[in-house]
Structures are given as structure tokens and as C-alpha cells.
Amino acid sequence: MTQATDSFEEIESAVVRFAGDSGDGMQTIGERFTDSSAFAGNDIATLPDFPAEIRAPAGTIAGVSGYQLQFGSHSILTPGDEPDALVAMNPAALKSNISDLPEGGMLVVNVDSFKKMNLKKAGYESNPLEDEEFRKKYQLIELDLTTLTKEALSESPLKPSDKARCKNFFALGFMCYVYGRPLDPTLKFFDQKWGKRLPEVADANSTALKAGHNLGDTMETARNRYQLAKAVVNPGVYRKISGNEALVYGLVAGAQSANRELLYSGYPITPASPVLEGLSALKKFGIKTVQAEDEIAAMGVAIGASFAGDLSVVATSGPGMCLKSEFIGLASITELPVIICNVQRGGPSTGLPTKTEQSDLLQSLFSRHGDCPLPVIAAHSPSDCFECSIEACRIALTYCTPVIYLSDLYVANGAEPWLVPNAADLPAIEAKFADPDEEYISYKRNPDTLARTQAIPGQPGLEHRIGGLEKSEDGGVNYDPENHEQMTHLRAEKVERIADTIPPTQLHGEAEGDLLVIGWGGTYGAITSAAQAMQAEGFSISSLHLRHLNPLPKDLGEIIKRFKKVIVPELNLGQLSLILRAKYLVDAIPLTKVQGKPFKVSELRDSFHKELS
Amino acid sequence: MSTTNTEEGSLTKKDFVTENDVRWCPGCGDYAILNAVQRTLPELGVPKEKFVVVSGIGCSSRFPYYMNTYGFHTIHGRAPTVATGVKSANPDLSVWMVTGDGDGLSIGGNHLMHLLRRNLDINVLLFNNRIYGLTKGQYSPTSEVGKKTKSTPVGSLDYPINPLLFALGSEATFIARTSDTDQKHMVETFKAAQAHKGTSFIEIFQNCVIFNNNAFDTVTGRAVRSEQALMLEEGKPLRFGENKGIRLNGFDPEIVELKDGDDESDLLVHRSKTNNPAYASILAQMAYPAFPTPFGVLRQIEGRETYEDALHSQIKASQAKGEGNLQELLTGKNSWVVE
Fold this sequence. Notes:
The complex is a heterodimer of chains A (613) and B (339). Chain A is α/β, with parallel strands linked by helices and 613 residues long.
């Protein structure tokens, strides 16, 4: 045990990581700790990190599931590079996470699980907790969590094995004490989840949570208690939101703003399944959801629904995008609005299905055969998924085109506080169908946007045929060489014209200087944090983050010219840097990482330093 | 398909003919099918603007371009998915899907299976010519074993799929067969399909005059069809030729010759609404030369809810308890206020 000192220590931010078996409920207590921190008025960013197997063999490294969050009294943009405190529920969790815990960090372990068998499964030849060197290295707090939980629940009617399962909430209660987190949000969660259905489970978990909290109070570890001020944020109503939730809400809002019915079709795939599940639960909004037989079918259903006049959406991940490619080409040549969401994960093939990556940018830009440019946008944070998906609706309907919306596992599963927008203030999306009283020419274009107008089946007099064969303006099949060239140019020009409606690029930092960092997608928090820190140290560095990846903003070329060097951090082998080099003839330096993990702020700073020295 | 009534007789075949030149080979069976569909649609009591014709890829899939309705020529094998999207979005439309043996049973077999089991109220016309036409003459999944084509110079290896058995295995609620040689029978079959609420699957024997000419002559040829085809009539015994019929011996069908004064009561009586799929399975497997090849409605099962009705009734039931409020959704149940 560590030495006792007294009272609270005031801190600005902290990073806590919970790690245990995938059946130990680490994601659950991570989320509860997040909710409590949000409720306490802190800013937060989270990083759930779980294995691809639902329940890998208990006690093994392969089965370790983790949840890291950073919370603070200032703006928090990333879940933190390394934890200040690590909770390890078993030897495997300790083994696979301890290298990230800096010396002097707080280490809470469940000593009950440090038995011979578990140590062996984790690959430990001896118990690290018996190693004096190891013990000195960290602020070690050894709790016999399983025993303590069972004792706390001696009165509970639950079976002993079920009592033991409450130990995650015991650990949570303890950590809530250490960081001064309120218990109320978690107690409310128990009530909502089990209160009516399984009151004895709600009671047991409440008891375990409170017992963990009380233990903190009575243990001689008062020195390990921290206090954080509330983050200074704009007044208003806040909630916690994950990227996939924000995507779901953005689609509902976008459909309402455009006054269109929403049809979603999907095939289950990690990490996009929560979009299918989320929208399927919103039937009272009139949303139609179809679980298709495969990824190809999901795209076909969406195209059919779009032809019939619905705002149609699919969401998938990389392997699903591969399968949809032929159909995306059809949506392009028939010029039908469809929103295609790709929640990226590590690839190629099955790759790293539960780890993050940004390696589908070039796929999004180029995966169709033929010359088939499409609008591509990317969300940069969990709450940004809301705005980004509304932007996808706007582009799809205004330009009568398929749109590719990119997020990634890190953004989709991560969560942050969100200032809830006023639904009535969301801008309307104007998208009219053809008027039955006017002559209909299916590929006649709006002179400004070059968008064609859709005519909806069911309207008398507007009968027409569309399809994958090249057409002339009147909608007839046309194989003339000049017509194909003209239509190919028109489709490309239509996508280019979207740039007319992209707002000026926001630059973080001075408008000119030594180093410009260009990012896109989920790297926003790490890039912005690193660049801001270096600006504070006096370096000539600015950063910008692209939402629109095709077309690129019109002012980007000019901005790039004002900097001596350009660096492009990406979780891939340099896909955006390739595009920037091709488009702007700039010597953009790729900064790459493909470990299934987000960038650390520190590694970005090191790389930026190198470029500036 | 079930019907939505409108003023009958106000539409004619001409209303469904487009200005496009029809570009099938001279003598192709597709012309006869197009003619039969264009003759059928005006008689269904459905307003013209409610028809949507969806197809995949192949000779047959050019069909939508020749129908003056809403139409969508999609990609190879995937028409069932687009048709599902159209019908799910707007159940009020009368959706007709046109496919072929390659499009529907090879590249698109998976989608066709799921369309049939979901039972969307869509009419599926599968043109079976037992060959790939548009790619110029390779064998198809319905070609007989040993078929010599450009891709199988010493004969094809794989056992063919039986479209009717496939539909039966997918638990389609309406299964029929007709032929491009019989206008009257096609029109009758299409009307029966339209009257059925649920997915109607129709296999049409269609002659490819270039790459597989006369493939069905042994059953549809004028001189032989009375002896070698079995025309199914609801409630009537299975009879063909001058005096032949089909009866059951255990689980096996057998041909019996009726002599003067013989009783028909031994013969199988055609009941397409029999719930047990065994009877339809027997019919589906009967084929010349062992048996006459059956034509008509093999099976029609009423009462299974269509996918689109179930989809929309779930939404209605949910909305009956109160429609969704966007602001409530965005705010959620666990929000907090910062002053």
C-alpha cells in the first residue's frame, strides 16, 4: 500500500484506463465513468478498445478488453497518450497494458485473479506483484475485488457466480472515489437498465458500486484523491454522444430537414452495425430499415428506394465498401442520391476488424471502374458525425448524387460531450422532385449545380427509364463517343461544383509560417492538441482539418503555398498526401501509422519538431 | 401482385409501347413475352404511372427500355435488391422484375432466394433460355449436363438448377411456368401472378434463336405439346395427350393410360393451394421425356404477410403510440445543463 497523505490534489485533467477480460464488463464501467465525468462538468474523450472475438478464452491476452478516457477542466480533444491510472482486473490485462503506464502511475489490481493459472495464461512465470522492483515503480493499490464484492453482497439473493460478476462496479465505485466522480448517474443507469426487470441485479450492482466507493473512503489512500474543476464551456444543454449515435441522429435530422422519408439498408458489420441497430429502433420517426442479405443487396435496396423517392442510406466498413463498388457506379451513372457511410477499420480484407485506421480514402475516391468521381466527406470527432451526416444529406439531395461519408472506428465508438442543437434551427435542405405538369427530361441539369431532377414513380406523365447504360440528356440509351465523353465530363463537373458551397477552410494558427499540418477524420484531436501546444511554445506551426476530401476546398491550394513545409499525419501509408502532391504539386510529407491505434499527441509533436529543426 | 383498382379499359397495349427500337435478334422469344406483358398490363386496373419494371443484365434485362412505364435497368444479378428497395419505399407501386437464367440463378441466385422468402408483392419473370445470350453463347446454370458451348467445348460439367424447385426451396408463395410460344397462357399466368399478394415467380421457357435454338421444341412444339406438355388446371385431374393422366404410386408419380370407361378418380387432381410443398415438388420435377413437362400455376399460398406490409405496419404501430420528436431524440435521457 502507498503512504497516506491528506486531502484532495487539484488537477486539470486525468487519463484512466480500465482493462480486463472481455467478459468482465470493462466497456460498461468505462462508459459509466465517462457519464459520471460528463455529469461532473468535465470535458471528455474516450477510446474503447476491444478484441475481435466476443469471448476469447478467459484470462488470455487475446481476450483483454480496455477502455481509456481522458477528462479535464479544459478542452479535451483526445483520450490521452498514456494513462495516469490503470485498473487491471487480471494478469493478462496487466501484462498487455502495463507498458503504457508511466513510472509513478496509479495501478489498481484485482489480486484475487493473480493465481497461478491466470498468471500462466497471461504468460507470467512469476507473480509480478511479488517483485519489489515492480512494486516500487507504481502507486500500487492491491484490492481483492472478487472477495470484497462477494462480502459486500452477502445479503444479496444472487448466486455466488453472479455476485462475483458485480466486481467491475466495485472497481468503478473505487475509481469514482479516487477522482471525485458522482455515483448518481451510475445508480440511475442501474435503475433504467434493470430496475423493473431484474431489481435484484440493480440492487447488487448498486451495493457493489457503493461498497467500492466506501472502501476508498476508509482506506488509507486519501492521498490518491483528485479534484477537477468544471470545464468552461458555452451554456446550454449537453449530453454525451458517440460517433455512431451522432451519425444516426444526423441522418434523422437530415431527412426531416429535406422533408424526405428515410430508408436505411444495411448488413451487420463491425464497426457500423450500431447504425443499423440505432435506426431500427426509431420506427416512430417513420424510418424504414431493411437488414439485407449481404452488402451488395444493402446497396441495391438503397438505390431502389432512392429511385422511388426516399432519402436512402447505407453504412458499412471497408470489406462492405469493396462489395458495394459496382452498385456505387450504378448510383453514379443514374445520378441517384444515396448516402454511403464507411466506418473505417484496419484492412485489407478482414484485417483488424475492431481497430481503427484511415486507409479507405483512396478506395472512396477511386474504387469504381470508369471515371467516376464522387463527393467524399469525413467526420473528425464523435459529435462532428452529426454535422457531417447532415452535410452528406445536403450534398446527396442538392446534387442528386451518391455521397461517401467516412468516419472510423475511433470516431464512431468514441464519445464526448455535445452541446445539443436546437432542432428548429437546423437549415432546410431544398430538393424538389420533377413537376408532373412540366415536360420531363431525365438528364436535364440545373445550370448552377448541374444536378438532374428526379421524377418519382407514381407520378402520371413522368414515366421514364434509367439504368447502367450510358444515356443522353433525354434519357435514351446512347453509345455515341461524343455523348459519353460529354456525360463523363458533366458528371465530374457536377461533383467539382460542390466546392462552390464549401465554406472557407478554418486554419488553426497563423495564416502563414514554417509548417502546415493537414489532417482529415479522426486524427483531429491529436493534431490540434499537438499543434496548439507547439504554438504556445512559440513554433511557427498551423494546422487545418479537411471535412471535404472530394472536391477539396477551393482555397486549399492558396493556403498550402503560404507555408514552407506541409506535413500530413494519417493512419495509413500516405493516402491524402498522395492526393495533395498530385493536385497541388506540393512536397507534402506523409506521417504515417498503421497499428490500429490513434496517434499519440507526443508522437505527433516529436515529428513536427523534427520538421521544424 | 395484388391489384389497385382504377377505371378499367382506359389503357391499351399502345400505352405501354416505347418509341425505342426493340433490339433483340429477329425471332427471339423475348418479343412474344414483351407483347404478352404489354397486353396484360392495361387489363390489370392499375394506373400506368404505378408500374415499375426492374431488371438486371442480360438480353431479357433490356426489357424496361421497351416498356413505357417507370423502369430501371440495373446491374448483373441484383435486380431483386433494387426491386426490394422500390417496393419497400413505396408499397403502392406495381413492381415487375425481369431476369434470366444467368442473371437470376447464377450471379443473382442469392438475391432471388431472399426476395422469394421475404415475399415482397413483386412479379418476377425469369426468362429461361438455358444459355448466356448477351455474352454470346456460354452455358448457363440451367443448361443440361454435357452442353457444348464456346466455354465448354467438350461439354459442360455442372448439374443444372431447376428454377421451380429453387423457388419452392425458397418457399415462394406463387410458382408458375409458361412459354414464349403461348400468348394466351402467358397473359393468363401474368394475370394470376398480379392477383397473388406476395412474390410471384414465373419461369418462362424462352427460345434463344441464335445460341440455343429450339431448346424447348420437345415440349412446346405445336406437333408434340399435347402429348409432351401437361397444362395444369385448378381442380382438374392431371391429364395430357388423348387419354393419359398422372397418378401417384407411393411418393412417385406415374403415367397411366385411360381406356374407355376408366375412372379418372385415380388421377392426381391439381390443387395449387395445397400447403404441403410435396405436391408442387413432384410437379416441379416432372419433365420430358420421363413425364410431360407441366405448365401453369404449380403453387400459390395465400395468407403469408408481405415484407413491405410488415415493414410499414411496424412503423404504423410504433407511430400510433406517438410520433418521434427530433428535439427529444437529440437531447436524450441523460442530458445536463450548463448555466
